[in-house]
Amino acid sequence: MEKKYLSIPFDAAEAGKLRIGDYVCLTGTIYSARDAAHQRMQEALDRGEELPFPVKGSVIYYMGPTPARPGRPIGSAGPTTASRMDKYTPRLLDLGMAAMVGKGRRSPAVLEAVVRNNAVYFAAVGGAGAVLSHAIRSAEVIAYPDLGPEAVHRLEVVDFPVIVVADAHGGDLYTSAVEQYRKKG
Hints:
- 26% of the residues lie in helices and 26% in strands.
- By secondary structure, it is α/β, with parallel strands linked by helices.
């Protein structure tokens, strides 16, 4: 399959061109955030405060890196299970977030929000954090430093490899792949 190359930030029109199963290389700024950071962002929004990064067109990577080795901007940077962020995700999508990167299935509410907002959910390969870290050119903590690896990081990436697993057209690779497998059996 042909790889697609996508610059971040991107808009709903760009997201709408993607289909489940597409291999995509992301280049630009992405933000890492996991459970604790998402909870704090939710609380900030509830208080009417700004988030620590511009949400419109953004990509959040569900990842908590390991410490960087000498000469590297970041340590291992593999995805974490996305469903842990499901209770926060529809709100961020409604605020203009373009995409998320993680691993695993998403709730029906998240999948509906992906379609409603013409967004996309990408998967990165779990267990390949050391390989994925080589696409990260710089990493900087921009919010919640007390959370350690779960702090929000600004990551500059070049050709960061992901796969579209939920698209703006209602496609869900986790569901369709299982159905295809069952038909072959």
